[in-house]
Predict the structure.
Amino acid sequence: ARLEHADRDLDGDGVAELITVDRARCDDAGNCYWNVFVRTGDDCHRFAGSLAGAGLELLPGRGDGGLADVRAYWQLGGGRLLLQDHRFQRGHGGYMVTDTLLCRREADDRLSCAEDDGRTGP
């Protein structure tokens, strides 16, 4: 195992929550499964979900317990990315995917993303 930390302050209290990854289990594109642990009242840590991606970004929204929403970037190859937004939902046991976008990196490094408008037909 090659454990690394990407700890972030998810609840805004000034103390980073634990986010760990085993780099030995990442794929060739750098995609990994980041395990999130949050503190409980007795200063123990409990598992709050896995976030799949090559990188993580905190978003301005907040879920249950005031935990920040997180965006994970999954490298698909050929300049394509899958962006998944996650929100902490206590009733579901942790971070859950709330939105997904398929994007491609343009020659000028911009991201061009496809939005799903919910239509099922032409």
